[in-house]
């Protein structure tokens, strides 16, 4: 345990978050996501695991992880197949965590399922959660921390 660091963030996750640079993607995936096969194509090469909901994992990650303010898709969600405008409960909850972490309303853009898989393959890493609700899959692009912060 460390002061000021969410206990959900294990050593492997902390190492990956620290190693990531500006513009790298992090995937937070639900329990149904093909994390093992997708992760083999990521920079890290294997999935990370946090046994918690996608909402709790997003909250923990965003307590340390800056979102990229230079792009429009720094926070993205997997769209519901056949209903791309539908926002699920887990997506609403993660949207709230993003807004809280950033201190303002932040767009959570939709990405079609197979396009999301392609983005995930190019990510730095995938964190698979124990989220059982469908469409609990998110992509966060890392931003920067200003020198004065």
UniProtKB/TrEMBL annotation:
Keywords: Isomerase. Gene3D superfamilies: RbsD-like domain (3.40.1650.10). It catalyses: beta-D-ribopyranose = beta-D-ribofuranose; alpha-L-fucose = beta-L-fucose. The keyword Ligase does not apply. SUPFAM superfamilies: RbsD-like. InterPro entries: RbsD-like_sf (IPR023750), RbsD/FucU_mutarotase (IPR050443), RbsD_FucU (IPR007721). This is RbsD/FucU family protein. It comes from Mesorhizobium liriopis.
């Amino acid at each position: 345990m460390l002061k000021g660091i969410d206990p959900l963030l294990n050593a492997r996750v902390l190492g990956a978050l620290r190693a990531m640079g500006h513009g790298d993607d992090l995937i937070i995936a639900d329990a149904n996501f093909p994390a093992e096969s997708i992760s083999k194509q990521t920079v890290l090469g294997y999935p990370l695991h946090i046994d918690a909901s996608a909402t709790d994992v997003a909250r923990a990650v965003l307590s340390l992880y800056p979102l990229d303010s230079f792009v429009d898709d720094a926070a993205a969600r997997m769209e519901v197949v056949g209903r791309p405008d539908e926002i699920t409960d887990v997506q609403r909850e993660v949207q709230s965590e993003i807004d809280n972490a950033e201190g303002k309303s932040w767009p959570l853009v939709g990405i079609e399922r197979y396009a999301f898989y392609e983005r995930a393959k190019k990510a730095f890493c995938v964190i698979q959660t124990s989220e059982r609700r469908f469409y609990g899959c998110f992509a966060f692009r890392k931003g920067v921390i200003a020198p004065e912060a």
